[in-house]
Amino acid sequence: MTSPPHLAAQLAVNVLDAHSLLAAFGVLGVGAVLFAETGLLIGFFLPGDSLLFTAGLLCTGSADQGVKLSLAPLLVSAAVGALAGAQCGYLIGRKAGGALIARSRSRRLREGVRRAEELLERYGHAKAILLARFVPVVRTVLNPMAGALDVPVRTFTLWQVTGGLVWSLGLTLAGYALGSSIPNVDHYLLPLVALIVIVSLVPLLTEVLRTRRGADARRGTK
To answer: Which domain of life is it from (predicted)?
Structure first.
């Protein structure tokens, strides 16, 4: 039976803080959070990037944070949560269309919708689905949007699995590698998480720059 202090600690968890989530729910919490962030529109605010990186760091035992995770179960939980969540979001979009998104009053969510639409229009289905994994909020709304816009199931599944594995396993292993090689790396956790989030945006920024250069080149030849 769960003791009152432990139960109180779980109830007091800060869902915006990666360490708080990991301390309360451990490896299974990672899968649940990623499922909610990528599959349910209400999860757009959850800290997917920082959660993955911090979880990988805590697998090394070098971080003095009172939490120790196991790498293999963590990788499985992260992958399952990320992939199942995206597929669930797609199916919700197929069934409910854009109604759920249209009803939302969240400015941040609507901005994510706008960016997701731009990705789909500019890069096509495959690249948009892949790149969206690395953009917070966009990775939440693009999945139901893909379903609502009737993106073929095979196309969506192939690229969401590819992007989901690169994102979830890549960030987790990055945290693990850094924690294994740098003593007391947890002292620099906040700036490292910020750096990881910035690095995760590199694929999107690269595509944007390449598209703009191509457009400028085409205008120059006219």
So the answer is: Bacteria
What does pTM read for this prediction?
Answer: 0.76
Residue whose tokens read 């090394």: 60
Please identify which residue in the block is written with the tokens 């989901």: 164
Q: Are 137 and 109 in contact (CB under 8 A)?
A: yes
Query: Can you tell me whether residue 149 is helix, strand or coil?
Result: coil
Amino acid at residue number 60: T
Distance CA 9, CA 13 (A): 6
pLDDT at 213: 67
- What pLDDT digit, counting tens, does each position of 128-180 carry? 899 889 888 889 989 998 988 889 999 999 999 999 999 999 999 988 988 78
Q: Which residue has the tokens 């009172």?
A: 66
Instruction: Please name which of 170, 201, 206 lies closest in space to residue 82, comparing C-alpha atoms.
Output: 170
Residue 179 near residue 40 (C-beta atoms within 8 A): no
pLDDT at 38: 93
Please check whether residue 44 is in contact with residue 16, taking contact to mean a CB–CB distance below 8 angstroms: no
Class of residue 192 by CB neighbours under 10 A (exposed 0-12, middle 13-18, buried 19+): buried
Q: Could you tell me the two tokens for 85?
A: 């969540």
Contacts of 214 (CB under 8 A, 6+ apart): none
| CB-based contacts of 169, cutoff 8 Å, min separation 6 | 75, 78, 79
What is the spatial distance between Cα 161 and Cα 108, in angstroms, rounded to a whole number? 26
| pLDDT over 80 at 52, yes or no | yes
Token couple for 68: 């120790």
